[in-house]
Design a protein that fits this description.
By secondary structure, the chain is α+β, with helices and mostly antiparallel strands. Helices cover 40% and strands 21% of the residues. This is S41 family peptidase.
Length: 528
């Protein structure tokens, strides 16, 4: 006890000392710097610098960001009813939601908004997306460009209901299908209601789709797991160097249906709460997990109140599955020479046993599915295409050059894939591999040592070889690229509801889930 008290006193003195130094320096710069300074910008940069060496989930939230977080948790807000992207002084419509204000006003995915109520987006220094928010019934005038033409329209803001379960339906005569898109306050209730309705329609088996679900409320992850897993079962535990954050989370109620055959779909964008649910389902041998290894976001955050309505969201612990696997993939506390977070190598994965049947499962970050699907994967090349917005922009061009009357008419061909490759090459798409980065660094070192003349020809040959290999890599990842292209293109014509119907008919992961659930012998074999 005396040792802990001494440690606390030492930490307190060090904190007080550093705060005093910082305050004095901050004051001296503001009072004496040669040019005029902006105190708020200086402080924002200081905060950003302080957090930069920690994990990316420990963040400072402004008052507006705090309110946005509350909106996300509640699942309702007032606005134009569209996903938007703000980058480089641009505001792009990513997806208008059917029958909401943006859709009613004629806005489409790919439209770039230039002005909102006379305010030019290019000149607006804050997050321009905030200009779209406001009270229900209020109007805003929007000027936008589409395919090189400038247009104007008027929108009337409205209440927007963000459903945790945006779609459910019958995949076959006895298999129900439920999409759980996010873990907001309504997640478990909407999932339970959907399953109840499907069972009334004849569902005797369930597919729970968590692909692309980024997570949300931990309590709702436990509640969703509890729909299938009995009372008093461990769903996840959290571990931290701070004792009070070491906790276990158990199911609190009788399972809604502890026996119904279950398939859970995940991919590389299923994170956090999605990984808690899929991990508990897998660890209790409660269902078959299908798709690709999940994202690996196993860090727990808690918001802490600051002055003037702001908050800091702090990583306080790590998630673990019932078998003891750590969900977190990247190690932000032991970085490589370039300062990048390190991922556990496959040969260093640890084996664990599932709770009921004793199957072997592995850690390494994220949840590794029982059945792996190429179409669900997110390889580095695919991630680079998404980061470059190449798939989104290609779908925009595609939409204005093709016509479809029904979702059944959309069948992308090998020629479509070849056209996409030609399109990204013409666009100048490129991405740097880890190998390229390492060679470039070695070549720079050689130049500093005046050895570059001796190895220049070999280096250029190697660079060209890597470029050719990258072209081959794009073709090797055809399944996952075509899956993302198809999804984006279907949405352009038939909205998200059309995409869900299309996936229900043709989605390879859903078809695999149907095949497994329709084969009780194979289902039991996987889980035993």
């Amino acid at each position: 006890m005396l040792l802990c008290l001494a440690s606390f006193k030492n930490d307190f003195f060090e904190i007080a000392k550093q705060i005093e130094i910082f305050t004095e320096m901050y004051k001296q710069i503001n009072m004496n710097y040669v040019d005029e300074t902006n105190p708020a910008d200086l402080m924002d940069n200081a905060i950003e610098g302080m957090l930069s060496d920690l994990d990316p989930y420990t963040k400072y939230w402004t008052e507006q960001e705090v309110e946005q977080s509350r909106i996300n948790s509640r699942g309702a807000y007032t606005g134009i009813g569209a996903n938007v992207r703000t980058t480089e002084n641009k505001l792009i419509i990513v997806e208008p939601w059917k029958d909401y204000p943006a859709d009613k006003a004629g806005l489409k995915a790919g439209d770039e908004i230039l002005e909102i109520d006379g305010i030019k987006i290019a000149d607006y220094e804050d997050n321009a997306g905030k200009l779209l928010q406001g009270s229900a019934g209020t109007k805003l005038q929007v000027t936008y460009t589409r395919q090189g033409k400038t247009n104007s329209t008027t929108l009337e803001r409205a209440a927007v209901d963000i459903k945790a379960v945006p779609f459910y339906g019958m995949a076959t005569s006895d298999i129900g299908y439920v999409i759980l898109a996010k873990f907001n306050e309504k997640a478990s209730r909407e999932t339970r209601d959907a399953i109840r309705d499907l069972k009334e329609q004849g569902a005797q088996k369930i597919i729970l789709d968590l692909r692309g679900n980024p997570g949300g409320l931990l309590s709702e992850a436990v509640n969703v797991s509890n729909l299938f897993i009995p009372k008093d079962k461990l769903i996840t535990s959290t571990q931290s160097s701070i004792e009070k954050y070491n906790r276990t989370y158990l199911t609190k109620k009788k399972a809604f249906d502890a026996d119904i055959p279950l398939a859970v779909l995940i991919n590389g964008r299923s994170a956090s709460a999605s990984e808690i649910v899929s991990g508990s389902v897998q660890d209790y041998d409660r269902g078959v997990v299908i798709g690709a290894r999940s994202y690996g976001k196993g860090l727990v955050q808690r918001p802490r109140e600051l002055s003037y309505g702001t908050q800091v969201k702090i990583t306080i612990s790590r998630y673990f599955t019932p078998s003891g696997r750590c969900i977190q993939a990247l190690d932000y506390w032991n970085r490589d020479a370039d300062g990048n977070a390190v991922r556990t190598l496959k040969e260093d994965y640890n084996a664990y046993k599932t709770v009921n049947s004793g199957r072997t499962v592995y850690d390494g970050g994220g949840i590794d599915p029982d059945i792996k699907m190429e179409s669900a994967a997110y390889s580095p090349i695919t991630t680079a295409l998404l980061r470059d917005n190449a798939i989104f922009d290609y779908a925009t061009d595609y939409y204005y050059n093709h016509q479809y009357a029904s979702i059944d008419d959309i069948k992308l061909s090998n020629q479509d894939f070849a056209d996409f490759i030609a399109w990204i090459e013409a666009r100048g798409f490129d991405f740097e591999t880890v190998t390229e980065s390492a060679f470039a660094k070695a070549y720079k070192t050689a130049a500093n040592e005046q050895l570059d003349d001796d190895i220049d020809a070999s280096y250029q040959t190697m660079v060209q070889a890597i470029k050719e290999a990258k072209k081959g890599d794009i073709k090797d990842k055809k399944a996952e690229i075509m899956s993302l292209l198809t999804d984006e293109i279907v949405k352009r014509y038939f909205y998200r509801d059309g995409l869900y119907e299309y996936q229900l008919k043709y989605g390879p992961e859903i078809q695999e889930a149907i095949k497994v659930l329709d084969n009780p012998k194979e289902y039991k074999r996987i889980l035993s």
